[in-house]
Design brief:
137 residues; alpha+beta; 5-stranded antiparallel β-sheet; 4 helices; 7 strands
Amino acid sequence: MIACFFRLGNVPKYVLSHIKQVCARLHLNQKFADDMLKWQNALNKNVLLNPDETRKVFSRYKLNNRAEFAYGYGWHIKEINKIPVREHGGSIFDFKTMGVYIPDIYVLGLSNCDCHSPTQITRDIAVVALEGLEKRK
């Protein structure tokens, strides 16, 4: 299982270099990681969807019984330390994925084994990354 995280925006070069080295040691295809980051940035900048569609995708909804449903159009809408978080995961043919987006942080977990879900470790790394970011402020 592998998990790598990216801080969006201005990343010190030595940090980005270190993250890429760790990912390379774990045999993460850097092109795939770069593509996932491009996808996340395109969502954030309304390149893929217009602002109204983006709002709908990342909104919680109420069911007919008025219970809040924390799932947008493909993303789980959650919170970590009262900060909004978007999560999306999936699996196909013995591969599992999990992505957690917190403003300024994107954590991506991948597993090439149907026996291990990257969901919890990806969430745990997101919490650690968020705590580290909050300490810097």
